Amino acid sequence: MPVRYAARQWIFLFSMLKLYEAADRIEAQLLMDLLHGYHIETVLLGDYLTGAAGELPANAFPVIWVVEDEDLPRARELLADFHSTRAQAGKADPAPWECGYCGEQAECGFDLCWNCGKARN
Ligand SMILES: [Zn+2]
Question: 86 and which of 2, 4, 16, 109 could share a cystine (Cβ 3.0–4.6 Å)?
């Protein structure tokens, strides 16, 4: 039954904990990859809702949700580390760098290419 299915979806959503509202899809993906590396399961919601025709999205930013409640404190720690590292790297080297593997311009604060995931070389 579609109604019951929708209700179950909502229960699933409300049982998750909102971790972080990312500036854009790229940042969200980087953070999710980072958290995945620590075996923290996350779900990205929000940005794919922006496709609705002619309507202003209710939630314009991609939002990362933590699936398991007990992962939330660890996820927040990792996020804080990530942002402080990025802020420091930004001061030391403000120029964006070009990935040696795929040639994409990567943001200065990241040590990994957002496009192919390779480490800065
Ligand atoms: Zn790359």
Answer: 109
**Residues with Cβ < 8 Å from 25, sequence gap 6 or more?**
47, 62
Q: Which domain holds residue 30?
A: 2-106
Tens place of pLDDT per residue across the chain (121 aa): 455 555 555 555 566 789 998 988 888 999 999 999 999 999 988 755 545 445 555 556 788 999 998 999 999 999 999 888 877 766 655 577 889 899 988 876 778 888 898 888 6
Ligand 1: centre distance to CA 106 (Å): 8
Distance of CA 33 to the CA centre of its chain: 8
Ligand 1: distance of its center to the CA of 93 in Å? 18
What is the 66 CA–ligand 1 centroid distance (Å)?
27
Cα 25 to middle of ligand 1, angstroms: 16
Specify if 15 maps to a domain: yes
102 φ, ψ (degrees, to nearest 5)? -115, -5
